Amino acid sequence: MNIFYFSAEVEPFAKSGGLGDVLGALPKAIAKTDNVYVVMPYYTDIIKQQYKDQMEYIGYFYTDVSWRHQYVGVMQYKANNVTYLFLDNEFYFTGPMYCFADNERFAFFCKASLDLVCWLGIKADILHVNDWSTALIPVLRHAFYGYNKFLLDTRVVYTIHNLKYQGFMGKDVCQDFTGLPDWYFDESRMLHNGWVNLMKGAIVFSDAVTTVSDTYSHEIETPRFGEGLQDVIARYHYKVRGILNGVDYGLYNPLKDNLIAKKYGISKMIAGKRENKVALQQQLGLPVRENTAMLALISRFVDQKGLELVADSLGEILQRDVQLVVLGTGEKHYEAMFKSFAERYLDKVSANIYFDNVLAHKIYAAADFVLVPSVYEPCGLTQLIGLKYGAVPIVRETGGLKDTILSYNEITGEGNGFSFAETNAHDFAYTVNRALNFYYSRKTIFREIQRRGMRQDYSWKESAGKYLALYHSLVG
What we know:
Layout (H helix, E strand, L loop, with lengths): L1 E5 L11 H13 L4 E7 L7 H4 L3 E10 L2 E12 L2 E7 L1 H4 L8 H19 L5 E5 L5 H9 L10 E6 L7 E2 L1 H8 L12 E2 L2 E3 H8 L2 E4 L2 H6 L10 H6 L4 E3 L26 H16 L8 E6 L8 H11 L4 E6 L4 H13 L4 E4 L4 H10 L2 E4 L9 H7 L3 E5 L2 H6 L13 E3 L4 H17 L1 H13 L4 H16 L1
Parallel strand pairs: 1-2, 1-6, 2-5, 6-7, 7-11, 11-12, 13-14, 13-16, 14-15, 16-17, 17-18
Antiparallel strand pairs: 3-4, 4-5, 8-10, 9-10
């Protein structure tokens, strides 16, 4: 098959979150059996020069976006059997990855992406579209490419990575950006409560809709998690299925990780993690206490991540013999909160209010626990990476966290982490304290929980197989 992926971000070229990680890993797994093309914007100020230097300029064309006649340069980069195609237009893609003009720039990207397939002269079997930023692709294909020989029998898969970010604009603005006829602006199609909803349009006009975990695919049919689209999701339930994200173990594997102080596998896990902990404590200016439990929180600072639970319980947790290492950025009040805790607990809290991929690897290798108390979590990669590095996850039972982390059961002896169900600080603090009690008083069991997590395989192999099965079911 000829499979095209479309995304606003792709690791390692440009990434702001989990979407970039997925589009960096899934296409490589699929490319072992099929022809794979990944299409993204050519961000002139973001893509590193080392990748630009390896790209080949293969030509240009013009795309008509409503009344606009716009230049599209095409850069190509090949690696891991994947052909990466970058669409260049300095007017739209100079500056930050996301900005105030996103609706117009991504409308351009969606139209140019469809024209790219035709310009390449490749008959596409699957168009795999991701999140709100490329959600116009299924709609534009339906409106303008019904008889195009390269897109005639194409099937469209739309993946919702996070239902919260849907893409809204007024009807007049959308028509100006796209040239779509009035027929599309109806409550049964693109309109939602009077506004154009790009995600809704993609759900309606795609052949299949996936979410990034099975539990999340059911949660989003409920008012609590549906973000206002629960009735739409329920109406198209027959299209929706959950396929869990995987982890790229080529990037995240303590046995091969060149970014950490000491590489280690399961057999050398205790010594390896101890050496990494000491190195991180020295780097961050924390007291060197190799036997003190280290908690890690690597996250965007937004309400979704359950940081209110952390705020309400951290004072209690820090009364224990622990160290907390925080890495991330986001909403200012959360940044200020972590800075405040770091100032009050100089020997216990290191607040790193930025993002650094190298430091993230070092934290996973050093930490005994990773905290993921999310209010909702479509999939989550933090807990999966934590498992591989022997950093035991402490999670709330939602979305992909529920699908991947089984709380340790003292009767059966099963479990790869610790979890709690309700969204409240008391349950979070109780679960952290329970986990710490295993670390300090039941070390043999704790070590087995660590090793059990390290042995688990959450690579892309199984998930890629499910996507391939979906693709084949669509093309017949």
